[in-house]
Amino acid sequence: MNMSFRILIGDDHEHARKAMRMILAEDDRFTIVGEAKRGDEILPLTEQLMPDMILMDINMPVMNGLEATRLVKEKFPYVKIVMVTVSDDVTNLFEAIKNGAQGYLMKNLNPSIWLSYLHSLATDSAPMPQAIANRILAEFSNTKSTEDTILTPREQEILTRVAQGLSNKEIAKELVISEHTVKNHLKNIMQKLHLNNRVQLTRYAFEQGFL
Q1: Range with lowest mean pLDDT among 61-65, 91-95, 140-144
Q2: What is the pTM of this model?
Q3: pLDDT, tens digit, 9 for 90 and up, residues 51-89
């Protein structure tokens, strides 16, 4: 049975919201539960509608997507946020990732890529985009910690590969274990480290000197 994911759309342009509605309508795993035209509407709608994922435009009136992302993640850390943009400039996207966003999508990408990427994010199996990983590496490469790790050797192996941008499938193949085992290890790692997603795991790996 396919899992169903509740989606909230945040974009001030009607044609952009319409395009996202059309893309998501092609996959019955996604259900649009609401739409926001301004950034300051995002948090109240999240509280009211309890979405699993938010598609967030960066530039919105009253409050931009970066600030809206920060507010949502502070109160609802489990809600996945995907930044939607017309630009491939990673500067704002990196700021969104630091505020808790899980990923980003270009508005001009093929709809099939959108659906595949969103499903991977929704099921926690999408690798971090390399551009974002590189920015995090540059940002945190000088902040290694000397504290002892609480992870097992196998968990450290998996954490390292997550930070390298590998997907669960690629990790499983490289370590000769099942994808299900990788997912279980990731759950244990996030529980031990009190982290919520692959972005935070990657940042932790860089800070602790795993790479």
Answers
A1: 140-144
A2: 0.63
A3: 999 999 998 999 999 999 999 999 998 899 998 887 656
What is the separation, in whole angstroms, between the first and last Cα of the chain? 38
Work out the number of other CB atoms within 10 angstroms of the CB of residue 14.
10
User: Whole domain around residue 157: which residue ranges?
Assistant: 134-207
Residues 96 and 21 in one domain: yes
108 and 189 assigned to the same domain: no
Q: How many CB atoms lie within 10 A of CB 25?
A: 11
Domain count, the chain: 2
